[in-house]
Design a protein that fits this description.
By secondary structure, the protein is α+β, with helices and mostly antiparallel strands. The chain has 3 helices and 2 strands. The chain has a two-stranded antiparallel ribbon. The radius of gyration is 13 Å and the shape is elongated.
């Protein structure tokens, strides 16, 4: 479970983040949140990770952030 969680974090705050938002995670005003499958679900063959981003200042996002460079 820890390995899957770590990999989910690598995916959601890594190259996929930069590709989508247009800025590296470390330079972003957004925080990456993610959901990963439990061990039981993983064993059933579901390996999906869901990534989400929120503003680090708590402000609501009201539009797509794709390519926004934030």
């Amino acid at each position: 479970d820890d390995a899957v969680q770590g990999r989910a974090g690598d995916i959601c705050a890594g190259a996929a983040f930069e590709d989508y938002f247009g800025v590296p995670y470390t330079d972003s005003t957004l925080e990456a949140h993610y959901l990963w499958p439990t061990e039981d679900v993983w064993d059933d063959g579901v390996h999906d990770v869901v990534c989400a981003a929120v503003r680090s200042d708590g402000e609501q996002l009201t539009t797509s952030m794709a390519g926004a460079g934030e």
